[in-house]
Specification:
By secondary structure, this protein is α+β, with helices and mostly antiparallel strands. The protein has one domain (about 40-220). The protein is about 25% helix and about 20% strand.
Length: about 230
């Protein structure tokens, strides 16, 4: 009598192997998709950081441009430096005949602004006379005034009065500033509070884009010695 043995694997083992293969393929697909999403997220974060850095640098440049505006300095293309406005035959610097200029004792100090009311801005020069304005206290007219409809368009664009070049930096096209004049009766010069605003190059003119606001005080007559 001859005996024949069958070595065939049960059908259940074939089904289990197929299930394992499908699980491995699914996990591989999830890893690929997850890696792609992570790479996209990292690229977006890096792009946002670059956008913020551009806006921050543009706002810093606007602060410096406002300081040059106060000091009456303009860009000389011949020397690629900033020089006194009086040395340039034709410059963009502020002229009294064109509108509001920075105050001095000869022109009546800040009283020259009173014709425009107690609180006003013109050509980026702002003066607020009401109580709490010096500290820009919440509730005062000076508190975040640059965000209000009455003042938002009273800014100075980067380079308007200094001729500062903007080539090569699109973020500078939207950089702007406002200069508050703070009266100091016992000082030769007033104190200036400068607020600068800039957006990223990609988000310029778009709502919800990258925005940077910087503020500093500028004293044209700092203390040079201490008794």
């Amino acid at each position: 009598m001859k005996l024949f043995l069958s070595l065939r694997a049960p059908q259940a083992q074939h089904g289990f192997s197929l299930f394992i293969v499908m699980i491995m393929l699914l996990l591989s697909a999830l890893l690929v998709v997850g890696g792609a999403r992570m790479a996209q997220l990292l690229e977006s974060v890096a792009g946002n950081q670059r956008e913020y850095q551009r806006a921050f640098e543009a706002a810093e440049a606007a602060l410096l441009d406002a300081e040059r505006d106060i000091r009456q300095l303009a860009f000389a293309s011949a020397t690629q430096t900033y020089v006194a406005c009086s040395t340039l035959p034709a410059s963009r610097c502020r002229k009294a005949d064109d509108g509001r200029v920075f105050p001095d004792r000869d022109t009546g100090w800040v009283t020259a602004y009173m014709n425009d009311g107690a609180n006003s801005c013109e050509r980026g020069i702002c003066y607020f006379a009401e109580d709490g304005s010096v500290a820009a206290a919440s509730g005062s007219e000076a508190y975040r005034f640059w965000t209000r409809d009455s003042y938002v368009n009273k800014h100075v664009s980067y380079g308007r009065f200094t001729g500062a070049p903007t080539a090569g930096n699109p973020a500078l096209d939207g950089a702007r500033y406002w200069i508050e004049v703070i009266d100091r009766k016992n000082s030769k010069y007033p104190l200036y509070r400068i607020t600068a605003f800039a957006t990223g190059a990609r988000s310029a003119g778009t709502a919800g884009g990258t925005r940077v606001e910087l503020q500093m005080s500028f004293d044209p007559d700092p203390v040079t010695k201490v008794n």
